[in-house]
Automatic annotation (TrEMBL):
Keywords: DNA-binding, Transcription, Transcription regulation. SMART domains: HTH_ARAC. InterPro entries: Homeodomain-like_sf, HTH_AraC, HTH_AraC-typ_CS, PchR_regulatory_protein, Tscrpt_reg_AraC-type_HTH. Gene3D superfamilies: Homeodomain-like (1.10.10.60). This is AraC family transcriptional regulator. Residues 38-136 form the HTH araC/xylS-type domain.
Length: 148
């Protein structure tokens, strides 16, 4: 009986050790995944006008599209293309406030092919049309310049 008890206890300890080892491996993998997702976000910050597809993005960073979609949403609270859309609109807002480029050129610069889609998305995000932002008070430009 004593021998069976010791053998069972040994197996319990071995199983516990394996479980702890798997936990450590998952944490290390999770850390690598977070680093990869941060690198992807940085890449999108500079390539927002013409982002690659999810599959191309995943391959570019050595992950799969499922991990990319799931991890990005968990870490940043938005989808990959939701992030890209927000980035495009934020840059467009800055360009409209700080430059005299026509609205259509601003739309093209941030990756919108159709100016009407740009105007709709801009209005939905900021509550006013891009042209209205230009006609707004110049204090908005000064506030934005102070933040930069």
């Amino acid at each position: 009986m004593k021998k069976l008890f010791l053998e069972a206890r040994f197996l319990d300890l071995f199983i516990e050790q394996q479980a702890l080892l798997r936990q450590v491996q998952r944490r290390a993998a999770g850390s690598r995944d977070r680093d990869t997702l941060h690198a992807i976000r940085e890449f999108l910050d500079t390539h927002y006008a013409e982002p690659p597809s999810l599959l191309e993005l995943a391959r570019l960073f050595g992950t799969n599209d499922f991990k990319l979609k799931k991890g990005f949403r968990e870490l940043f609270g938005t989808t990959v293309f939701g992030y890209v859309a927000e980035r495009r609109l934020s840059v467009a807002q800055q360009l409209l406030l700080l430059t005299d480029e026509p609205v259509q050129q601003v739309a093209e610069a941030v990756g919108f092919v159709n100016p009407a889609h740009f105007a709709t998305a801009f209005r939905r995000r900021f509550g006013q049309a891009p042209s209205q932002l230009r006609r707004g008070p110049k204090s908005q430009v000064q506030e934005l310049a102070a933040c930069s």
